[in-house]
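Lecture 7, part 2: worked example. A protein chain together with pyridoxal-5'-phosphate.
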Amino acid sequence: MHFLREKFEKHVAATSSSPMGIAIERAEGLWLYGIDGKRYLDMIAGIAVSNLGHSHPAIVAAVQAQVARYMHLMVYGELIQEPQVDLADLLCQHLPPVLSSVYFVNSGTEAVEGALKLAKRVTGRQEIVCCNNAYHGCTHGSMSLIGSQEYHEAFAPLLPQVRRVRFGVLEDLEQITSRTACFITELVQGEAGVRTASPEYWQAARTRCNETGTLFIADEIQTGIGRTGKLFAFEHYNIVPDILVLAKALGGGMPVGAFIASREQMLALTHHPMLGHMTTFGGHPVCCAAALAHLQIITRQQYWKQVDRLGKQLKNVLQKYPGVREIRQIGLMLAVDFKDETTAMTAYKTWLDRGIFIDWFLFCPTALRIAPPLIINEDDIQEFEQRIYEK
Ligand SMILES: Cc1ncc(COP(=O)(O)O)c(C=O)c1O
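Predicted complex, written out as structure tokens:
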């Protein structure tokens, strides 16, 4: 253990000055097991990834079977690979008919990049409109949309012609014009600390995009595949995006991202220049096999139907915790907002100490993130309650 930590600190690149640094032996269901024997209730699911918990037997079996059959063959888009085709087909069966063509990539940020490029090609325009406090990923294009001046200054120059509007504010939609290629937004802002907008806002945004010929890109990387209580969050608002962006939970624990549009629009990436977007590993057969097994279970059992009830139970449990000011919740996506940063940090440390694995948000320092696997049940919530209120 001692040597493992030493090597971690020496050779694995750090992203912050104080990493959690817990060495994990294995993970199963809702539990992470440390190599020191301590176990943790996973209340973040690898940040909205492991919907069916860890090491789900059907996903493990699908991965093992695919590994034995074939792994990497050739860059994306050339060969017909069954797990990839079946995954695209199953996704499209659960989407409105216009979202009929799936481009698989490796991650969320890469899916955002693909979506932005597609919008530019389809519209012949360059301007992008995004929202304050948005998070769309960490590559240069995605980071151009990030709602933080500090990141912009640190990595300038970023993409030009990016216009930022206030999330959820109707009058700001007028800034989407006939010069705008796309309006890109999360449907529930994640890193801003679980912020929703009204159905009227989303319908007005859809209408404004239609009026101006702007493509509506819904970044459902965090909200997609059941987390908010619908398979896709746009279903809450009775709108259909032009481009849907998925990742995180899509892969069932393996890295897969996707941007999805109409077949007609997607064809824009095949000419002038051809190969308008390329990837060596995007849609990797092993990742697609895992994603397919995961999506089959989620859609067969319609897990999203229980998500809001469980989210509300968690909200009730958390509401009486000392120092909690507000809880924002949609499905199993919760922000527990404390009266100040210090109280939030104290709760974080106390809970971690008591074997509760949670996380915070990029743009909401007073809040803690709760986003457990969708398979969480009443007993798990009771265990969570006992641990956080332990005397
Ligand atoms: C809404 C949203 N978009 C994009 C991303 C980036 O995804 P990835 O980390 O897979 O690149 C994230 C990741 O947290 C996200 O929450």
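The first strand starts at residue 24 and ends at 28. Residues 47, 107-109, 112, 135-137, 186, 190, 219, 221-222, 247 surround pyridoxal-5'-phosphate (CB under 6 Å). Keep this in mind for problem set question 3.
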